[in-house]
Amino acid sequence: MTPSVTLLTEREHVVQQWRQALTKHDIEPKVVAPSDLANAVDGQVAIVVDVDGAGLDADELLSTIAFVRASGALPIAHIDRDRDALEDIITELCHGLVTSGDRDVAQVAAAITRRADRLRHLRFEFVTVSPCGDDVLAVMGNGDASLHRRPLDASDDGSDIASITIDPSAARATLHLKSGAVCQLVAASMVADSGMINGQDDIAIDGEKLGARLRELRLAAGLTQAELARRTGIHRPNIARVEAGRHTPSLETLARIANAIGVSTTHVLISRRS
Q1: Considering the chain, what is the average pLDDT of its residues?
Q2: Which residue among 9, 86, 151, 200 is the one 20 to 30 A from 77 at the CA level?
C-alpha cells in the first residue's frame, strides 16, 4: 500500500514544493484545506501543516499540531519564515521536523517513511562495543541509545566481543564472543521495563488472539510446550495459560517466548494486529 501524506494548505506553491519531493520517494500527497482538519488525519502517515498559509494564531497552531500528533500521524511544520520563529513546543511536537525551504523539504520527505514507522523503537539501528569500557552500546531506530553491562545473559562468559550481527528484521542482535560463545540482545525486551510500545503506556492486547498466535508459531517451529518451557525457563503450565488466553504476558516475557520460537516480538505483534 502506497503511503500517503496530507498537505494541510491551500497555497499552490507549497503543494508543488512538497509534491515534487514526496513523489521521489513513492509517497502520495493529499491536499486538504486547513479548515478540514478533522478529515486530514484519517489513514495518513504524516501531516504537513503550512504554518504561514493556515492563518492560525499561536494557540490554534499549537492545538493543530498537537491534534495531529495525538491522532497518531507524524506532524511536520512548514514555515516560510526562519524556523526559529516557531515556539520550542511546536518543534518538540514535530520531533524536530520543521521545513523552511526546498532543501529542508527534500530532507524531511526522504525521512518520512522511516520516521513514521511506529515500531522503529523496537528495531536496532546500530549495536557496538562502548567506546568507554566493554559495555554494549545499542542505538534504536528512533534514536534512543542505551548501555548494557556485561554479562548480558547466562551465555555471556565475559570474553571479548569478536563481532556483532543484527538480524534482517532488526529485532535481535547476536554477539559472537572470542571464546566461541554466542549471546543475544532482543529489542523488545529493552523497552519492556518502561511498559511502552508504539509510544503508548499499557497497550491493549487481546490475550486470546495473542495466545493463539503464539501457539501457531510454536507448532510451526516444531516445538512442544515442554521444549518451549525448557528454552525460556518459563514453567509449562504458565505457557499453557498464555496460549489459552488466560494470561497476557509482559513484553519482556513475550520477547523471551518469541526468541525461543525463533521469531521477533515485532513479528508476533504485527501479525496479531493484521
Answers
A1: 84
A2: 200
